[in-house]
Amino acid sequence: MTGLHILHFLFLCFWGGVVFAESAMELVARKRPEFVPAVARFHYWIDLCIEGPLLVAVLVTGGLLLRGRPMDGLLLAKIAAGLTAVAVNLYCVVIVVKRAGAAADPSHSIALGRQVILSAVVGVPFGLAALYLGALRAGWI
């Protein structure tokens, strides 16, 4: 395993931790509607300052790891699952930004919050599948 592999894995771990922390915040906001405005602001800033740069770092290090590498079925499945997780997360970022702009309308903000949670429900399994396939490919499993 090279330093680039380790860096890619660290970025993935940080990204996963951020996604799970944001999901926890969103679930709390579902139970406590008075927290929706604060969660919307926090999630917006987390996406802007932490998650966005982590997504870029994951994509860049992943792309660098693919240079000159032969593509087999397992690697293609891992890439497809990972890119699906990234795409769903990017969709979530768009929703989070929309929600930050709709802070004055609580009902619209709550509806957008449901879409944020749905994106986690859809995206996280793809991210976990990519992680599993990567671990399988690396011989960790």
Write the topology of this structure.
Blueprint lengths: L2 H29 L4 H31 L6 H29 L4 H33 L3
Helix pairs in contact: 1-2, 1-4, 2-3, 3-4
Which keywords apply here?
single chain; 141 residues; 4 helices; elongated
Structure, described:
By secondary structure, the protein is an all-alpha fold. It is built from four helices and no strands. The protein has helices spanning 3-31, 36-66, 73-101, 106-138. Helix 3 packs antiparallel against helix 4. The longest helix has 33 residues, at 106-138. It is elongated, with a radius of gyration of 16 Å.
Task: Tally the beta strands.
Answer: 0
How far apart the termini lie comes to 15 Å
Shape: elongated
How helix-rich are the residues, as a percent range?
Answer: over 70%
**Per DSSP, what share of the residues sits in E-state strands of 2 or more residues?**
under 5%
Radius of gyration: 16 Å
Mean pLDDT level: 93
Low-confidence stretches: none
**What is the helix tally?**
4
Order of helices and strands: HHHH
Largest sheet: none
Alpha-beta content class: mainly alpha
